[in-house]
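Reagents: none. Just compute today. F-box domain-containing protein.
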Amino acid sequence: MSIFSKVNLPEELLINIFCRLPAKSIGQLRCVSNPLNSLLTNKHFLKNHFTSKIHFQEPEKLMILSNSTSFHTITIKYNNVFSNFVNFQPTPSDHFVEICGSCNGLVLILNNNDSLVLINPLTLDFKKIPRCPFALDPIGSFSMYGFGYDYVNEDYKIVVISRYDHDNEYEPDILDMFMDIYSLKVGSWKRIKSSPYDHAVAELASGVFVNGALHWLASKMPDYVSVIGGFVLSDEEFVEVPAPSCLDKSKFVFDKLVVLKGCLCMIDNPEGSRINVWMMKEYGVEESWTKFCVDGIDFYDILKPLCFIRDDDEVVVNVDGEKLMVYNVQEENSRDLEVDGIPDRFDSIGTFVESLVSPVDPNLFGIEA
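Predicted 3D structure written out:
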């Protein structure tokens, strides 16, 4: 007998209604009965629910690492700001250091011992990622991380680009680059051929996931021309993504990449209190780059856009890891974002969307593009 036999509505219609509910509400409904829990954890339902959330523009949330064993989530909806403190330590050895990326509601976090953990901030489901067997000696090595979804093979992947500087008195300036990939579907690491680019840039930035690829700023040898390298997760190959034609190709490797409204963006800092934000409206099309400015906000080191709010007129920015501000792109003014309970300084901040995707559940695989 259907779980909806006592309800005078078709099951398909009720499922359609469930798909429009927030992930948190679905989590609560799962506790009502075993049949309802079975339906709401079904792979087909999870697919429909997540794609419906994308369609109805579920707002992004902020995640702040405030200390080594806790985090805050921040929801900005209309004129209201809500914060939630989560005291969460998967194991006693976990001490959170950096958010390395998010995708479909899962967040990749780096610990202080260079181990990785994948967390759903809504459900608190987590998966400890086994250490890479190819990991380099931390002395003299530096790594950049990326996390995204392979839509072709239905697999979440973690990508690590490592560089190893093993200078000595006999062989100075020796720099090796390595690339390793962890597949959540397979549950193992593998080493692939190295990147064709030089990733020895000033900032060890995490990869930015857009359109099925992770993106890093790098240099192309032998002339060290700046490029945007896009690592396509399905092919496990790099492609060169066109940058704004007006930028100095000898310098933009020192800029920053972010994602806003699902678009790849580049942050250019021509002046002390101003940044230019270049947004690629149509992925891969050079002519689709458009620019807006964030001006009049004093900062020392970091001025990084995080997400848009209020019908895309306002953008939330991270100012030196000490405060959040909102910049109105149309009116060209800014204001402090007052959030109760967050610390005076935060170690790392990122965005995520709420979802029911679990890093440990077999239903994890199958989210459609």
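The mean pLDDT is 84.
Action item: order primers for follow-up constructs.
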